[in-house]
């Protein structure tokens, strides 16, 4: 068996009670990391911890819209495991699904508060402890193909994910001075609980819809594929990768289907 890629590292993952975050938590643990699962879904989060049954993983309630809770989650991680090497800022919501003419502005505000302000708060507090501890850490933010091209997601969601990529790029220079890397991952459509609930579809229906639109045929994108991209960015294998938006989309955002 190859050497664990995150041996000795400590990771904080937001939105880790389900979907991409849960897949990343399990994969990071398989590769030697200690992991704090942070989420607002307390019952699901505790179920994840119980199913793993390891002293290297723990759950902490965190609503990323509340900066004090973000700061507390970071502090809990450092107190529990002694350091923080990896932040996977993954928590997010879909936001209102209506067209722009009927856009719910309060829904837009909530999407921005969760998907942008929440990411900013996690970067801020995680980076602070990395700088203080002189840790050359890795920060990963979940964006979306909707941050790469128009029409790939609802308006509020797309706007918020564009902002996440912009935030990552501006943070790159400042954090690079401290040896801290920051990158985004932009997945294509994945059958997460978030997507299924938002669209009122079964996982198989989301997968069918995504497969029909996908550029890369013969493979269905799963949360594990996205988690594997996060593992790469968290590990020393990406030691000189920073400021990038890694699209896990099978080429969806670079191929115009209208020409075929």
Automatic annotation (TrEMBL):
Q: Which InterPro entries match?
A: NAD(P)-bd_dom_sf, SDR_fam
Superkingdom assignment: Eukaryota
Keywords carried by this UniProt record: NAD
Q: Which GO terms describe its molecular function?
A: oxidoreductase activity, acting on the CH-OH group of donors, NAD or NADP as acceptor
Instruction: State the similarity comment.
Output: Belongs to the short-chain dehydrogenases/reductases (SDR) family.
What PANTHER family does UniProt report for this protein, alphabetically? SHORT-CHAIN DEHYDROGENASE REDUCTASE, SHORT-CHAIN DEHYDROGENASE REDUCTASE 3B
This protein is called what?
Answer: Short-chain dehydrogenase reductase 3b-like
What is the organism field in this record?
A: Erythranthe guttata
Q: Tell me the classification of the organism that encodes this protein.
A: Eukaryota, Viridiplantae, Streptophyta, Embryophyta, Tracheophyta
């Amino acid at each position: 068996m190859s050497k664990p890629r995150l041996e000795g590292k400590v990771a904080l993952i937001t939105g880790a009670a389900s979907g991409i975050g849960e897949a990343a938590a399990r994969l990071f643990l398989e590769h030697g990391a200690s992991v704090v699962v942070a989420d607002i879904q307390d019952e699901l989060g505790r179920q994840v911890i119980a199913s793993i049954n390891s002293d290297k993983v723990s759950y902490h309630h965190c609503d990323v819209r509340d900066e004090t809770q973000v700061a507390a989650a970071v502090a809990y991680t450092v107190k529990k495991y002694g350091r923080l090497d990896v932040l996977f800022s993954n928590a997010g919501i879909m936001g209102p699904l209506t067209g722009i003419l009927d856009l719910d502005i309060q829904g837009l505000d909530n999407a921005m508060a969760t998907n942008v302000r929440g990411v900013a708060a996690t970067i801020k507090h995680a980076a602070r402890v990395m700088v203080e501890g002189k840790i050359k850490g890795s920060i990963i933010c979940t964006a979306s193909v909707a941050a790469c091209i128009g029409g790939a997601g609802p308006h509020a969601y797309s706007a918020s994910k564009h902002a996440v990529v912009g935030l990552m790029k501006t943070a790159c220079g400042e954090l690079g001075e401290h040896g801290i890397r920051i990158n985004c991952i932009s997945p294509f459509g994945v059958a997460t609980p978030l997507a299924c609930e938002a669209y009122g579809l079964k996982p198989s229906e989301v997968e069918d819809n995504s497969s029909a639109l996908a550029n890369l045929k013969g493979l269905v994108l799963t949360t594990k594929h996205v988690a594997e991209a996060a593992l790469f960015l968290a590990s020393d294998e990406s030691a000189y990768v920073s400021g990038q938006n890694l699209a896990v989309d099978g080429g969806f955002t670079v191929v115009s289907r209208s020409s075929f």
